[in-house]
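We give this protein:

***
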Amino acid sequence: MIAWLAIQPLRQRNFLTIEIGRQLIQTAHGYELVFTAKETKNHRLLEMPFLPALVPALERYLTVYWPMLIAMQGPRDPAHPVQDPRGLFVDLTVRHAVHGRRVK
């Protein structure tokens, strides 16, 4: 993820709210990031291909580490809604640790 941000800078809010299948989309040629105008600070559609050199690392994260992070969440308290499992960072606690405050 750090290599990705070093090569393809992205606003922190957009980076932390990436959802698999919504903003991170697999295509016939790899992956691309797509943010609607409502999701960007300047209110413009943002589409960018995911760099081919980083695809193997992304696929490893998606197939190995991301499922492990979801499994580590464990059962939820019924009083609290379950997080959407599509989020690239799995849980708001991770987003909070990276961002320094809660992302809504």
Observations:
- The chain has one domain: 2-99.
- The longest strand covers residues 30-35.
- Residues 2-99 form one domain.
- Residues 55-72 form the longest helix (18 residues).
